[in-house]
Amino acid sequence: MRQGTFQWMKSVNKSIILNKIRTDAPISRAQIAKETKLTPPTVSSNVKELIEQGIVVESQLGESQGGRKPTMLLINHQAFYVIGVDAGPEKIDCILVDLAGTIFQRSSSMLTTPITNEEFLTILKDCIRNCLQSIPAIIENVVGIGVAMHGVVEVETGTSLFAPILGLTNIPIKEELEKEFMMTVKVENDARAMALGESWFGDQGEVDSMLAVNIGHGVGAGLVIDGKLYHGAQDIAGEVGHMTIDLHGEVCECGNRGCLQTFITGPAIVRRAEMYMMQNASENHGITGETIYELAISGHEQFATLFKETGEIIGIGLTNLIHIINPEKIVLGGGVTKSGSLILPVILKTIEERALTPQAKKTKIVITTLGDDATLLGAVSLLLVDLFDPV
């Protein structure tokens, strides 16, 4: 689908109607008019266009309220498709999904450093192209591309300002992809995209404020308030991985010492395990986070303690965020949360011990149910929320 068509579909009234159908389907035209305060003629004319466009379909008749049974409306989830991209820092993953988030195709490309902006963009374009060309019949029905990029992103221009782990700056992702694929492109920080994806696909219920924290190779967060992402004044809201924990700690990729992510990421856990093994004259043979977790749950007390320490540090970081933001719910994602059975009880205990008020102590903390696809579906939601949301 080309950019002009996308803009036509997301006019304010259409977005209001689409979102109402998405959240309350099956629903009649009369119900939409009543609940959105739009006039019945406005609803009818817009629904007619949406049906012609193929994104809305009529369903079985509803219950009569004394007159003729109304025709009910539904979203046609396979009318259009979206490409979602999780870009970096170790690889680029792409998915092709319908409007319900059902995945039809995947592609993946590894990233090696050092790498230039041009090399990164070439790999990114190839990965997207592989996904698009896998099902040629639906290319014309792709509504756009959502990119979740690690590091600092200037959302308005879709530029990656600083990707610290890749060592790149000022990558014009939106400009290059729109020129290459001639469709709408949205670019967002990966953790913020994940937060929006949790709000859209994660079955988190009706919450006014939700914080999603992604703990993997790095640490980032996204705050969703009333269904909207909060970006901050300079697009760096959510960079919680660079919260200072120890003024004299290890040097972070950002250049500062003792950042939260020098303690709790996958690589940080591996480094601490390697130090323990060196001190005990043990060979690590390229030990991984997965190996450390397996050893911990099989009874290796030192590694179990390592995860408990990690859980305590995460709990301290989350307590700080609860005191600053006070969200209703915090969703944890990323590779480190696969060790949730070891770290989550310690996280909860730490918050219980440190939070200021009884209510804050009970902030709901959950691990994502979207698994490894949380950020990818977050990238998808960048397009969907723009299509369905009127503001």
Range of helix content: 40-55%
Which shape, going by the Cα principal axes?
globular
What is the C-alpha radius of gyration, as a whole number of Å?
23 Å
Which ranges are low-confidence, i.e. pLDDT below 50, for 5 or more consecutive residues?
A: none
CATH topology of the largest domain: Nucleotidyltransferase, domain 5
What is the mean pLDDT? 88
Total count of strands: 16
How do the SSEs run, as a string of H and E? Answer: HHEHHEEEEEHEEEEHEHEEEHHHHEHHEH
User: How are the strands of the largest sheet arranged?
Assistant: 6-5-4-7-11
Taking the alpha carbons of the first and last residues, their distance comes to 22 Å
CATH architecture name of the largest domain: 2-Layer Sandwich
Strand content: 15-25%
Structural class estimated from helices and strands = alpha/beta
CATH top level class name of the largest domain? Alpha Beta
Please give the domain count: 3
